[in-house]
Amino acid sequence: DVKVTQSSRYLVKRTGEKVFLECVQDMDHENMFWYRQDPGLGLRLIYFSYDVKMKEKGDIPEGYSVSREKKERFSLILESASTNQTSMYLCASTAVRGLSFGEQYFGPGTRLTVT
Amino acid sequence: DAKTTQPPSMDCAEGRAANLPCNHSTISGNEYVYWYRQIHSQGPQYIIHGLKNNETNEMASLIITEDRKSSTLILPHATLRDTAVYYCIVRAGQNFVFGPGTRLSVLP
């Protein structure tokens, strides 16, 4: 059974703290993604990675960075958390299949609250 | 990536077919149509995707019009567990753009 896991389901952090969100997939997928989901806005892509040590900015990368040191692990970093980063964060992975890129498998999400 | 338009909400009686429409009039030739759904408090779940031919799998059928400007996701026998937000996405390349989707309520 394919699986994408995220390090925490719920997280509460203070403004200014450095926050690490971890994502691990066990499907040997090349591509991994970080989204945030906010009411009325759907899912918005923050960053993605198509290979180890490679990263690309998505639609809303400001205030975030990422790290992919191993194929199965993709980390999202909030260098200095702010209240407007309170959101649901979703990690996903997909295999490369030409232009189709296959289906994305999502983790359960991390609900982050910044106070 | 092309934009999509979906109705914000729909109801369906349990056991009946649920037909969820999606307009993607600016779709280009190499963009696939994907459908996902999200049940409350869970991550999105892949349902089906297609390019220009109709597709069917164990979860649903995808009907794409000949001009590819719209598509319909069909859940043939909706159950209460199919209550979710359904997202229609068109893309070519690595970037998925999820809009607000359609909230499907399956009623007993």
Folded structure, characterized:
The complex is a heterodimer of chains A (115) and B (108). Chain A is mainly beta and 115 residues long. Chain A has strands at 4-6, 10-13, 19-25, 31-38, 42-49, 56-57, 64-70, 73-78, 87-94, 105-106, 110-114. Helix content of chain A is 0%, strand content 52%. In chain A, strand 7 and strand 8 (73-78) form a beta hairpin. Chain A is globular, with a radius of gyration of 13 Å. Chain B is 0% helix and 46% strand. Chain B is globular, with a radius of gyration of 13 Å.
Care to give the gist of this entry?
The complex is a heterodimer of chains A (about 120) and B (about 110). Chain A is built from no helices and eleven strands.
Poorly predicted regions of chain B are none
For the termini of chain B, the CA-CA separation is 37 Å
Helicity range of chain A? under 10%
Describe the global form of chain A. Answer: globular
Number of helices, counting only DSSP H or I runs of 4 residues or more of chain A: 0
Radius of gyration of chain A equals 13 Å
Largest beta-sheet details of chain B: 5 strands, mixed
**Beta strand count of chain B:** 9
Summed up, the helix count of chain B is 0
Mean pLDDT of chain B: 91
How much of the sequence lies in strands of chain A comes to: over 45%
Task: Please give a handful of descriptors for the protein shown.
heterodimer; A: 115 residues; mainly beta; seven-stranded mixed beta sheet; four-stranded antiparallel beta sheet; 0% helix; 52% strand; B: 108 residues; five-stranded mixed beta sheet; globular
Sequence-ordered SSE layout with sheet pairings:
The complex is a heterodimer of chains A (115) and B (108).
Chain A lengths: L3 E3 L3 E4 L5 E7 L5 E8 L3 E8 L6 E2 L6 E7 L2 E6 L8 E8 L10 E2 L3 E5 L1
Chain B lengths: L8 E5 L4 E6 L8 E7 L6 E6 L4 E2 L4 E4 L5 E6 L8 E8 L10 E6 L1
Parallel strand pairs in B: 1-9
Antiparallel strand pairs in B: 2-7, 3-4, 3-8, 5-6, 6-7, 8-9
